């Protein structure tokens, strides 16, 4: 395989790896935000009763 083809393959693989990494990070942040919103919603009546 010529050097240029190897370089293109490496660049493509790097871009795919980076996009998967960023997608996983975005998914993790999304799950964190959803869970935080759920807990905040569940805590709202408790905090209203307690007065906090």
Walk me through this protein's architecture:
This protein has 52 residues and is mainly α. It contains 1 helix and no strands. It has one helix at 3-50. The mean pLDDT is 85.
Compact description:
By secondary structure, the chain is mainly alpha-helical.
H/E series, N to C?
H
Q: How many strands in all?
A: 0
Count of DSSP-assigned helices: 1
Average pLDDT, all residues:
85
How much strand? under 5%
Gross geometry: rod-shaped
Largest sheet: none
**Uncertain segments of ≥5 residues (pLDDT<50)?**
none
The helicity comes to over 70%
Radius of gyration: 22 Å
Task: Tell me the distance between the termini.
Answer: 67 Å
Structure keywords:
52 residues; mainly alpha
